[in-house]
Design brief:
2 copies of one chain form a homodimer.
Chain A: H1 4-14, H2 26-33, H3 37-49, E1 53-56, E2 60-63, H4 65-87, H5 96-103, H6 109-119, E3 145-146, E4 155-161, H7 166-175, E5 182-189, E6 194-199, E7 202-207, H8 208-211, E8 214-218
The structure holds a DNA duplex (30 and 30 nucleotides).
Chain lengths: 219, 219
DNA sequence: GTTGCGACTTTGAGTCGTCAAAGACAAAAT
DNA sequence: ATTTTGTCTTTGACGACTCAAAGTCGCAAC
């Protein structure tokens, strides 16, 4: 029974390593978890000694199968809880990430199952992030087409939002670029870094890095 | 933002002191929280320095208004969560105490409000324990009539179960003595310590201390 | 009154997660 | 080759929570 701190380390590593054998750098973790590098080193060593990950000194960290499966369980909890908060408790999708951050460490498997059942075994959360199944051994990465890479003037549908920060989600909400929305990129200018797109109810303008956080699918 | 340990201390003190000026002994807390007496002394001193309670050395402990209001909020969370787990997630009422024990420290006020709303502002949890309102400043104590004290051969209704331990609740469930059930005490023998009662669907026998954990109301 | 006993407190120590600051290292720049 | 730079590790320390064991207190019984 890992502590919630350990769970957060596991989750941070998992979502930053698509390939199972990709190494996550210590600095990346320090940044993600908002602790000092020294803290990460200490923590990682203790997790390594518990068999949750491999520590390659001065290189980074890689989950073991055990660590990976634990991390997946945490991500699953997080995303199911988010979905639950939005669908059942009618909460604002912009807030639920925060809430789920706390709840994911407190919810038992029993409760999680009930929630999953109640929701009808959803496959994605309100941001479009896939919910790992109970058995899955790897996390699907959103490496698809985004508003920063898709063809111009062709119809797409928003699949997934790759950034959970409240300000970004607020902007998404304002423009209507939520998962499911139909969208067409009308112009994209590398030089100015501006992406303009049309969607039902108006137009939206955003920077290239931001556009890259909106995954779309041909529709 | 007290830690969940502090919240557990607060809760333990609250539910053990009906009168606001009643003192709870250190030993009682050590027992309740399953820690050594020394730990309680240390913890209590630190909570006293934060203004959550008064420590009367070698006597016990008394909540300050601030500590009390915090403790009430925790109890409110606990009981609302229990109710939610039973009514919405259809969980077994025997299990929910455990679950709520963890969840009560992780749920935000926002989520709690939604739950309260969804449930229609219930006034008691599945065990019959009253749910403190958002503003209440004292915890209603179950000092009513119980199967150990009520009149014989008169009709009563089970109001509240004063013990949340799974084995006890299992027995309650088996006999059907759940809150709401109609019951009549057919015999009570001080000497043998046996209480026998009739209810729809059969008879139930229990010891005096156990009978005292079932609060009833004339019906 | 002294004694004994049970309840409470103190002390010394350990774990967990954290930081600041100093040290070590590797890869890039010169 | 040497220096620089940036990343990573080590070290010493601290706060929160805990225990075991030794010490202290108050009171009831003798």
């Amino acid at each position: 029974m890992p502590t919630s701190t350990v769970e957060n380390y596991l989750k941070a590593i998992l979502v930053r390593s698509s390939d199972s054998d990709e190494v996550v750098a210590m600095g990346v973790l320090a940044e993600a978890l908002d602790v000092t590098p020294g803290t990460v080193t200490t923590m990682v060593k203790s997790m390594a000694s518990r068999g949750l990950l491999e520590h390659l000194p001065r290189e980074g960290v890689r989950l073991t199968p055990e660590g990976r499966s634990h991390a997946l369980a945490v991500v699953r909890k997080h995303r199911l809880v988010e979905t639950f908060l939005v669908q059942v408790l009618k909460m604002d999708w912009k807030e639920v990430h925060q809430e789920a951050e706390a709840l994911e460490h407190a919810i038992s498997d029993t409760v999680l199952l009930r929630i999953d059942e109640l929701l009808g075994y959803p496959s994605a959360d309100p941001h479009g992030d896939p919910i790992p199944s109970r058995k899955s051994t790897l996390l699907e990465r959103g490496r698809g087409v985004t508003l920063a890479t898709c063809d111009l003037m062709k119809p797409f549908r928003v699949e997934r939002i790759l950034d959970q920060s409240t300000p970004f989600l607020e902007y998404i909400q304002k423009t209507g670029l939520k998962p499911g929305a139909k969208v067409k990129v009308s112009s994209r200018d590398r030089a100015s870094g501006v992406v303009r797109c049309d969607l039902k109810g108006g137009e939206a303008t955003l920077g290239l890095p931001e556009a890259a956080k909106i995954e779309v699918k041909a529709s």
